[in-house]
Every structure is written in structure tokens, then in C-alpha cells.
Amino acid sequence: MKKLSLRLRLIVYFMVISCVVWLGAGVFSWLETKEKVDEFFDTYQMALARQMAGADWSGLSAGAQKITDKMLKHVHNAEEEDEAIGFAIFDRNGQMVFHDNENGKGFGFLPAEGSFIRQIVDGDDAWRIVWLRSADGKFYIAVGQEEEYRAEVVWDMAEEFMLPWALGLLVLLIMIIGILTREFRPLRGLAENLQKRGSGDLSPLDDKNIPSEILPLVKAMNMQLSRIEGMIAGERRFVADAAHELRTPLTALQVQLELAEMSGDDEKMRAEALTKLQKGIERSARLVEQLLVLSKVDTSLGVYDEAKGLIDWKQILADLKADYASLAEEKEIEIKANVSGFGPVEQGSPLLWGLVLRNLLDNALKYSPQGANIKIEITDGALQVFNSGVSVEEGALAHLSERFFRPAGQKVSGSGLGLSIVRRVAESSACKVCFENADGGFRVRVFKEE
Amino acid sequence: MRILLIEDDPLIGDGLKIGLEKLGFSVDWFTDGAEGEEALLQTPYAAVILDLGLPKKDGLEILQDWRRQNKNEPVLILTARGDVDQRIAGLNSGADDYLGKPFALKEVQARLNALIRRSGGQAAAVIKYKDIEFNPQTRKVLQNGKEIVLAPKELALLELLLLNKNRVLSKEVIENKIYSWDEEVSSNAVEVHIHHLRKKLGKDVVKTVNKIGYILEDA
Questions:
Q1: pTM of this prediction?
Q2: CA of B15: how far to CAs of A334, A373, B31, B72, B104, in Å?
Q3: Which residue of A has its CA nearest to B52?
Q4: What ipTM was estimated for this complex?
Q5: Which of A184, A238, B103, B207 is the most buried (most CB within 10 A)?
């Protein structure tokens, strides 16, 4: 039954149940009919016996039997139905003195006054016989009926009930099969639709004519389909953007490589081209690395979620300062850091938030002029990085965290992805990122949204 | 040939400038749209290389403004977008050709040469004048089938004269067309180059039109 369709299962269950009910009803009505029929015939038999018991049998002689035989024959012929009734009269000694010349002839003498007993007549027929004593007390009257006849009557009557029932049952089953088939059609259509569609087809399922029990499922599936569609569209956009962004550094590599090739004897030109080629490769590598980080942040925020905890900002800062020591020294930039709180979130992924601070510090160092200073402040509910000596065009502020956005005319190489990584991590923890030109410099604040 | 290059990426711009100059062009390079647009209004260029994603003013807008002001210099656009729509938009805005990134320097050179040649009414790849043959792509000059070695500026001058046959070119026009802004031009540079050309290719090759300039005349 496990693999059968719901429709087939319902049909089978229904058929079994209807047949059992039908059989039960049949048995019940047969029993009921039997009882009624027994009651009826018993009354009839008893009445006949009483009448016979009330008669005066004292003058009964051998001749009477012959006359009666003729009479009875006549009666039997006239009657259309043989109700298989027989009678016999015995004297006190158990001698049969009179009988109906037919069935009664075979009755054995087993007097049980006023009650019905079951007797075998002529060796194999079961009879139901009532015994009464005659009014004068000299004779025993036995009136009996063949049980097989009664059974036939009961069966005939029960059959009359059961046949129309059986026909009705058949009609009912056919109708149920028809209705179930019709009602399950939308479900089958749904399944066929899903089976037939190609892997790229994420159009919503038709929820017209879907029964209300299934509708939530279809709606949930449609929602999931549209989520997947959105995700795939996002991935496609990302790949397209990434491919687009890689074209520019690749062009730079191509052009500088050609310069190195055509430099000929010009050592200086070759050396310059190679230096720029090197720079271009570094830029491309950084872009690829940032792209990977961003796609990881995008797709597996859930994976990093597991490693949530209190963030050790001091350790992160120490690591970052060590990593950027040479660059800071080269640009004579002082990095001041002050940790007085748990940061934007109390519980967060040290890996992701480390990435946030790294990107912000990296930007601050790259875009600050020689001799600038950088201030990092971490308080309860916020993190901010300030670098002096630079400002961002007001119009560009709003676009800073967009993927691949770089303010016009940048001399410093960058992928345009760092701040979008920052924003992505912040948003995943319900934090906001804001950029502002303030105090003669540029400040980025990441803080918990109230 | 003097080329205007508007490209904001430092590595690509620098590479194109150095490379194209090595290939015989004079290149003025601007990194932002506004300055680049102004440059074309000030100076006659043989062709323009225009990047589409530019700071301050978008490449397509610049192109449309130029065309509106009847600036007919051939324009080659550079685009990082691979999609057809943007190429069509570029060509519809008045571009003569486009190159999708990443591209090779050699391809830029070939397309520039084709654009310059056609804007001078010349369809064949090799420009012929009397017994002289000049191939802009290989930068080689043949006279009666024999190669004549010319200095880069002499080649540029010869190319300019060949593309403007039967037209008198003043000294100022020549200076403007073969020198970029960052090159120093001595007052008699053009005369010196003309002198060298005559020496190498024959006295009659360039005719002097008194007080006006120089001309390459069909016999």
C-alpha cells in the first residue's frame, strides 16, 4: 500500500469498507428475517396445533384416514404453495392414529407438551415440531414444518434486500472512483508540471483549482521557487559583475605585457612595463580574493554563525597592526585604537567581524595621505574607523558600499568590494554602516540598529 | 598621428599611451571625462579612444555632445561590458568602432589606423603616392620597392601629408597633428622634418606653398 497513490488507496479502502459494511448489513438482516420468519411460522404452527387439539378425535377410526387422505390430496392440489407443513396424531401409547398422509407419516413419537422441538424425519430432514395434548387428553397432536423450507423463505427474503443493496454499492463505487479521479486531477497536473519542467524553469506553480488542503504546500513551494530564482539571479549578477570587473585588470595586464614585448632594446621601458605588470597582477589577485570573500559572506553566513561568541577586539587589532605595520610606517601613519566595549554586537563571528575591521583599516591606510592618522574606536554597540586628510565626494557617499563602486578618478588600486563586504556582514547582524566626512577626514561607523 | 585618449584606469591609460607612442602616434591622455571632452574642442585629433566608464562625465554623453557640436573625429570606444546593447548604444551615439575589454594593443593600433585611413577617404590598407608606399600598421615606407628608414616624427608627418593629399597644411596644423601636449616642439621642428623627408624621398616629394604651408600634390 505504501507506494500506491492516495487516490488508489482511498478507492481500495472505500471498497473494502463498503463490502464489509454490506456483508455486515446482510448478516444482520438475514438474522432479523430469520427471527421474524420463525416467529411467524411458529405462531401459525401453534394455531394449527391448538385448533387440532380442540377438536374431538374420539371417533377416530381406520376409515377416517382414507377419507381424509382423499380430502387432503384435494386440498394439496388446490394450494399453490406447499408450506411443507405436516401433522400426525398419536394415542397415549405412542401409536400414530392419524396423519396427513404425507410428511406427518414419518414423525416419530417424541411428546414434549406445548413446546417446539427439532426432530429428524425420514432419516435426513430436520423438522420443527410442536406437540400438544388433545382437549380430552387421549391424543397427542404433532404439527411440524421442514426447517429447510423456512431457511429458503428467509434466504429469499434476505436476497430481496441484498440485491438492490449490492447494485447500489456498485454504483456508489463507480461514482467514488470517478469523483476521486476528478478531484485528484489538479494534483496530478501539479506533479506532471514539476516532472516536465527543465532545471532552469523556476516559474511558479499554478494554484488555481488546488484544494485548500494542498494550497499551503503549493504556496510554500512557489515561495521557495521564487527565493531560489532570486538567489540564482543574484549569483548570475554576481558572476556577470565579477567577469566585467576582471576585464579591466586583464586589459591592463595585456597592454603592459605587450609593452614589455615591444620594448626591444629599451631596458627602461621594459623594466617599467614589468613593474606595472606586477602591480596589475597584484590588483587582479586582490580583486579575485575579495570576490571570493564576498561570495563566501553572501552564501555561507549561516556556516559562520556557529562560531558566534564574544569578539576579542584587542587580539584582532594586534593582528591587523602587525599585518599593516610596514604600510603604516611607509606612509608615516599612526594607528590609534581604543577598545572600551564589546563592539557592534555582543555575540558575533570573530572571523567575519575581523574581516570588517580589516577592510576598514585597509581602506583607511590606502586612501590616507602621507602622515595622516587613523583612529579606531570600539564601544558598546558601535565600531568606528576615522582617517584624517581625505574626504569623499558627497554624491558618492551613498554608493560607497555598492558592489564594485569606486569613486571617480581613483589613483589607488582597489576592487570596490571591501565596503560591500563590510555592509553585508553588518546587515547580517542587524547593524548599519554609515559614511561621513567629518573633522577633516573620513569616518565609517558600524553600529547596532535600535 | 595625434590621438586623444580618455581612460580612467591608470594601468591601461599609461600602457596605451606608452605603447601607441612607441607605435608612432602622439597621445594626449586624460583620466576624466570633462577634461577629455574639452581637449577635443581645443585641438584637432586624428582619432579619439574613449573609455565608457568615466568619472565626471560618462563616455557616451561626451560622444553625443561632440557629435552635436559637429565634431567628426573618428572615435573608438573601449568597453568592459560584453553585452551587445551597450555596443549598439555606443555606435548609435556616434562611435565609429568599439573594442571590448580585454583587448590587445596591436588591435587598438590596427583599428585606429583603419579609422584614420577611412576618415581621410582612403580605403586601402597601404597608402600609395607616386613611387612611395606607406603601411600605417607596420610603419614601413617603400620607394620603388626599396625600404626607406624614417624617424618616427618623419613618418607621422609623411602619413599626415599622405592622408591630406592635395590639401595645404600649415605649420601650426602639422605641429598640432603630430605632437602631443607633453612633447616639446622647437620652432623649426616642422621645417627640419620636411627637410629630412625631401632628403630621403626626393626633392619633389613635398611642395612648399609660400607663407601658407606644405602640400603633397598629385602629379
A1: 0.56
A2: 35, 34, 13, 26, 11
A3: A248
A4: 0.74
A5: B103
